[in-house]
Amino acid sequence: MNIRTIAIAAMMSTTMLVGAAHAEKVLRWTSQGDALTLDPMGQNEGPTNSMNGQIYEPLVNRDRDMVLEPGLAESWKPLGATGWEFKLRKGVKFHDGADFNAEDVAFSIARAQAQSSDFKEQVKSIKEVKIIDDHTVQFLTDGPNPILPNEITNLYMMDKGWSEKHNVTVPQEFEAGEETYAVRNTNGTGPFVVDQRLPDELTVLVKNPNWWGAANAEHNIDKIEYRPIKNAATRVAALLSGEVDFVLDPPLQDLKRIDSTAELKTVTVNQIRTIFFGMDQGVAELRNSDVKGKNPFQDKRVRQAFYQALDVAAIQRVVMEGLSFPAGIITSPGVHGFTKELDARRPFDPAAAKGLLADAGYPNGFTIQLDCPNNRYNNDEKICQAAVAMLAKIGVTVKLDAIPKSQHFPKIKNRVSDFYMLGWGVPTLDSHYVFSYLLHSKGSWNGTGFANARVDELTDTFAVETDLAKRDKMIAEAWSIVKDEIVYLPIHHQVIGWGMSTKLDLPITPNDSPQFRWAKLQ
Question: What is the reported pLDDT for 514?
Fold first, then answer.
């Protein structure tokens, strides 16, 4: 081989390497807030579940239409009133090469039932996981559970051996600020593997070539780079400049601008999520109020006054750019148990609200603090600012404390917030999920202190009722009680909009959780 031939060969080799590098499909995206943890049972929060769902997998998944589909379980069937049987997918390996089997399922359910787990309500009906063989498990339940497959669609399976090796057999104590190996390190079975994790800065995922679904994979993504950007204008600028390919939460007022920009597009859908305010009715005295010796929220007239002082139509029109639907209950269309009749609101009536406050003994109002996230929901801080102004008109002075979600959510879970914003999605698509977390007296996200024996009884009963007509009647009764008691202040059901490059094909889903296993990048 002469020198000229060697030079040509070297040049061709370099060209091929450059071509291969350019061929790598790198998806760059952003949103306002990062996953709170990579421990898949540490926090049951939308963006956290979404990030972990790229890495870990559940037994039962949902397709583009939110219909149940096989995940790590190929099939499942009820065992009468005693539970469910799941046939596990064979040949599945965790990212470190360990085999996935029934022991991992039994371990994961036990871990999800731990006191520090944020998923324990979803698996509390399971009294035993019976291993039939390596690829067959039975979930034996405390009575029939007709919706159990729906309850585990965001319950991710972990490797028992890896968890024992790294001393993470129980979830982190998130509210206590605990840091464990599982917070930044992962070992899932999913389509992507964590390559780099810098919380609140950068998370890099790379394609899992050994994923069980690789042969029939719909995605063509080699690498995912996620950088949270809190500032809304900066997120949009990153999309307009081509710095990112996808923005999960562009400002609603910028959707038209994005859609009219060459090589960009938007997609919208009604989200299965309701935004509302919670009021702590369970403490004798509020923590951040000038009312001493009693709790104004224990008086239904005060709660109703707050409700009727909030002009949700104005919030829809001005703050949300029309992209929301006023809510009467804290669950959205598409969730079993929702009806238009239940979702009807009491009238906006500030004069009546002032009268109710006077009747309750607060003719001049009072002061209180509103706790609000500033990096979680569409226009969350702006909604809170609007509520502050509306409540001022009935004499209530509200101090707004808008903080990142990582600081906000523990205030609710630790019961140190008097008045707060929260949003709630329903991955099970069933009202029981809302009641078990938010309205049952033992619900882990019930920051209101609301406790009603009949609601508790109904919640526990419609969890096991298999007669659908009877079950629907129970759900309707429970919602009627909660609505009449004004436990929460519903604001609206969200509409979500995504902005992305026209080179990206990524279907939007009502749970606002991008599934990059479906993503294709030109």
Answer: 98
Q: What are phi and psi of 2, to 5 degrees?
A: -80, 175
Residues 419 and 310 sit within 8 Å (Cβ to Cβ):
no
Supply the DSSP string of 445-475, one letter for each residue. Answer: T-TT----HHHHHHHHHHTT---HHHHHHHH
Q: Which residues pair with 496 in a beta bridge?
A: 269
Q: Quick one: 436 and 516 in the same domain?
A: no
Find the length of the chain.
522
- Judge residue 348's burial from the number of C-beta atoms within 10 Å of its C-beta, 0-12 exposed, 13-18 middle, 19 or more buried: middle
Number of H helices, E strands in the chain: 16, 19
With respect to residue 245, please indicate whether it lies within any of the assigned structural domains. no
Same domain, 287 and 393: yes
CA atoms within 13 A on the CB side of 243: 14
- Is the distance from CB of 192 to CB of 26 less than 8 angstroms? no
Produce one character per residue of 41-51: b if its CB has 16 or more CB atoms within 10 Å, e if not: bbbbbbbbbbb
Question: For 496-513, how does the pLDDT look when each residue is reduced to its tens digit (9 = 90+)?
Answer: 999 999 999 999 999 999
Residue 151 falls inside a structural domain:
yes
- Percent residues over pLDDT 90 in the chain: 95
In tens, the pLDDT along 378-394 reads 999 999 999 999 999 99
Domain identity same for 158 and 298: no
Number of separate domains in the chain:
2
In the chain, what percentage of residues exceed pLDDT 70?
Answer: 96
**Per-residue pLDDT averaged across 327-336, rounded?**
97
> Residue 447 — φ and ψ, nearest 5°?
-85, 5
266 SS3 class? strand
Asked if residue 20 lies in contact with residue 157, where contact means CB atoms within 8 angstroms, the answer is no
Tell me how crowded residue 185 is: count the other CB atoms within 10 A of its CB: 14
Secondary structure of residue 261 in the 3-state scheme = coil
Examine the domain organization and report whether 388 and 486 are in the same domain.
yes
Q: What is the pLDDT of residues 134-177, one digit of tens each?
A: 999 999 999 999 999 999 999 999 999 999 999 999 999 999 99
- The tokens for 157 are 């399976």
Which residue, among 361, 430, 413, has the nearest Cα to 115 in the 3D structure? 413
Question: Residue 17: CA atoms inside 13 Å, Cβ hemisphere, count?
Answer: 6
Mean pLDDT of the chain: 95
Buried b (16+ CB within 10 A) or exposed e, 210-233: ebbbeeeeebebbebbbbbbeebe
Residue 95 is part of a domain; what is its CATH number?
Answer: 3.90.76.10
Q: Which domain holds residue 140?
A: 29-207+503-521
Residues 172 and 276 in one domain: no
